[in-house]
Amino acid sequence: MSHTMIQNRKKKIGVWKIVVYTILIAGGILTLAPFLWMLLTSFKTQVDAVAIPPTILPKRWVVDTYTTLKDKIPFAKMYWNTVLTSFITVAGQLLLCSLAGYAFGRIKFPGRNFLFVLCLSVLMVPTSFYILPQYIIIKNLNLLNTIHAIYLPCLFSAFGTFLMRQFFMSLPKELEEAARIDGCGHGGIFLRIMLPLVKPGLVSLGILTLRFSWNNLMWPLIVNTSTTKMTLTAGLSYLQGQYLADYPSIMAGAVLSIIPLIVLFAVFQKQFIEGIALTGIK
Amino acid sequence: MKKSIVFILAAMMVCSCLFAGCAVPGNTSTDTATQSEPAAPEATATAQTPAEPVEIHYAYWASPMDAFYAECKTAFEASHPNIKIILEPTAWTEYWTKLETATTGGSVADVFHMNGVNILKYADGGVLLPLNDYIGNSSVDLNNYPKAMNDMYNYKGTQFGIAMDYDTIGLWYNKTLFDQAGIAYPTSDWTWDDLTEAAAAITALGNDIYGIAAGFEEQAGFYNTVFANGGWLVNGDTFGFDDPNTRAGIQCWVDLMKAGYSPSEASLEENASYLQFMAGKLGMIFSGDWMAAYYSSADSTVAAVCDVAELPLMSNGARASVIHGKANCISASSAHPDEAWAWVEYLAGAEANKRLGEMGIAIPSYMEYSSLFFASYPQYNMSIYSKAAEEYSYTYPASLARPDWMDIVRTELQKAFSLQVTVDQACDAIMDQLG
Amino acid sequence: MRKKGHNTQKRKDMAWGYGMILPLFLGLAVFYFYPVVKVIYDSFFNVGAFDKRTFAGLENYKNMIADAAMWKSLGNTFLYVALIVPFTVILALILAELLNQKMKGRDVFRVIYFIPTVTMTVAIAMMWRWIFNGDFGILNHIVGWFGGSSHYWLSEKPIALICVGVVSVWMGVGLNMIILLAGIQGISASYYEAAKIDGASPVRRFFSITVPLITPSLFFVLTTTLISTLQIFDVIYMMIAPKSTALVDTQSVVMYFFRNAFEYSKKGYASAIAVLLFVIIMAITALQMKLQRKWVNYD
Hints:
The complex is a heterotrimer.
Chain A: H1 2-41, H2 64-72, H3 75-106, H4 112-120, H5 131-140, H6 147-151, H7 158-169, H8 173-181, H9 186-197, H10 199-215, H11 218-223, H12 232-236, H13 247-279
Chain B: H1 2-36, H2 39-48, E1 54-61, H3 66-79, E2 83-90, H4 92-105, E3 111-114, H5 119-124, H6 132-136, H7 147-152, E4 154-155, E5 158-159, E6 162-163, E7 165-166, E8 169-174, H8 175-181, H9 192-203, E9 210-212, H10 218-228, E10 234-235, E11 238-239, H11 244-258, H12 265-270, H13 273-278, E12 282-288, H14 292-295, E13 306-309, E14 321-323, E15 327-330, H15 337-348, H16 350-359, E16 363-364, H17 370-374, H18 383-391, E17 393-395, H19 405-417, H20 423-434
Parallel strand pairs in B: 1-2, 1-3, 9-12, 14-17
Antiparallel strand pairs in B: 3-15, 4-5, 6-15, 7-16, 8-12, 8-13, 10-11
Chain C: H1 2-42, E1 45-47, E2 53-55, H2 59-66, H3 68-98, H4 106-118, H5 121-132, H6 138-145, H7 157-185, H8 189-197, H9 202-213, H10 215-230, H11 234-239, H12 247-250, H13 253-263, H14 267-295
Antiparallel strand pairs in C: 1-2
Helix pairs in contact in C: 1-14, 2-14, 3-7, 3-10, 3-13, 4-7, 7-10, 10-14, 13-14
């Protein structure tokens, strides 16, 4: 009897697995399609890329697009700018947001709720409204057309603060109390106890920030003028043209630009998942 | 929490009132500051070391013309050792947001590109340098450029820009489809009735092939027929959609739609007319000269079998083509207007225009060199484009008072082109909003 | 004595609290609070191109109340919220749970689902526009197999808005999945092991362990998705050409705001729209903050 029960259970698990895999594979195809589209378009000719009816495979495969990209835009320089600004943005946000997130999530101080809502209010105004005031501020700081102009406003994130606050808040009180008995102050609790435990939060904020800063289009174009001070996504938009975009070049540039992100994620996701399983917070 | 929100709102109101006190003078001071601030460090620098070249920043939207500007920069700097040109391209989609932000922020480039839609706003805003005196004291002769192009960049008697290139409209056709339908190719004597007949014959071929693209198009569409019909669109702050001639110039397109000689409006929006033409699905299409580069490309199925003719005559025996082109303008806040002018003068001159034509990128606005561009496409009858510019071109319409007029016109007329309302109903609706 | 200790702790808390938020707030004040204040200030002026302004009092607000196009775009925005927020959050949650299970190929799936968040929006738009294309799109083919009729999905009235919603959900799921997955990592494996011993089904595990224990992340995802959907703009811009017939029926309030600010040079009026949106978002967020006490489990 127990034997059939186990078999039933195994059958159930088998069915469950099939359901899960079906969902994941179907979703995966839908998810990967634009990336494949991007990859295939990068091997098409400009006219082939917008042909009617659309074709999936290139009529003739063009590899030149990848090699001529550096003649159309200062590709290497733009790539470096993207890496640099993204790195600074991620590092800055992780630092500032985890500090403020801890304060909002774990410390009681007067005006905390007010200040937190004030911080959130930043998210409630359409981003395009920030363009002109921020431009004038950057100009007054004498930073127009510099790399600093690209990342400076992005260092301060209400979104990231909110995210980190949620992660800090979900840690149990007992941890803090135990540390306090051991004579730990806020600095010690934050650095030695809490910060390692919110690693998943830090990693996901890092990923989201990296993605945002990698793809930030409008702001670098507004605040910087020379092509050598541009990030890659912004630089690729030069190929968009007024009438017919140079889609193959844009896609080729995009493919080259996101491969490191994918690799980075592939490496990191394993890291952050296992790092946590060991600590087991709850 | 509720309290704190009320608190924030109140605090912001108070702040905004406080700002009311300081922001207004603050803003006016940035205006004056714009003229001196960027200038100050450079001016002192040039005063101390006169050998240091003056930097002229040149902003434009990225296009196939980038290579041309790079050549001009090299040639210009060789003959003007005291000036250094800094090229600043921006993507077309962000160009206008950026230009306006930089102008408002007081750090716009010395020389920048302008188009027919935006010139009135910039000229009226007082942010452009008047060029009349510079033109008068130089070798530039405005008679070398199409009159309609000069008019476009002339605001209340002041010239604010000199055209770089121009675009007019022609009638492209697919010879294969004409042969299959057994009709003669378009000629300069063609009338709108001839066009309708040809469209009917080609549509009759079936197989998802249509005679013409008759969807809602502005520059490459009803603007041309409205002007040819003796109608008008904008004059100062009044609009011409009550004029029966204007309505007739729109009606002729909607008639083609009704007869089923064109893909539907929705089809043309989702699959651009020029792509359908390049795929060999359309017999005829109104297109600007810039499309020749795409129609002739290796992957265009019609490259070897298409050609271009003059636009057809309307029933009154007239024809018209809208003309448009970009111009170079100088910022009123430029610290080096003389050097900026030298660059504009060079770009407007014979040497630059000749080179632009030879490179085959756009029609040089200097009419003497227009034909050089056409030599890049010997297989097509491209000279109709310069004929249009010289003989029957109309300035691209623009409105200062109602920058939203084009959106209103499009919203309402698209309903007529999708056959949901009549042209009269659509025009009435337009006049209700613009009248 | 005890009171004194309590007081020093309070003072310490204050010092640490303010000290830790200070760097962030300095930056926010310079780059964000000032612009927010300026939006409110500008809404009382007629601001033309190049910041030319005259005082307008409440005129912008009066015009706004009478502006049918503004209300239409606000209505569209709420339709987007109703469509996008529930689907994005629920699908992200399910996906996060599935990708948390021990199974073969899990890492590969995680990477696959991450890819759209870094894929260029131009490519995403091109592909989806092709799917929905009225003449050559795959969707019409599929609908055809089931005997349905063809549509110009992105040009027809109610459908176009739904199509934009679908793409928006598709784009948002991967992002929120990452946050929720991180939240699930914080749940101790012992809960799941205990459930396994009890023989709880995966569905029950999901509802009785995962969902209640990741409410802080869920609250974050819900709040930020709601705020960003109320400001929906990019997806509409890339899916619906600015010259489409469907524009009026798909335009969101931020899109309408953008056109007023940058295309019609009516920055004062645009500011009034932004203030209205600000108040709406603020009210909804406040409501959420209040309601969270009922369902978000912080400890």
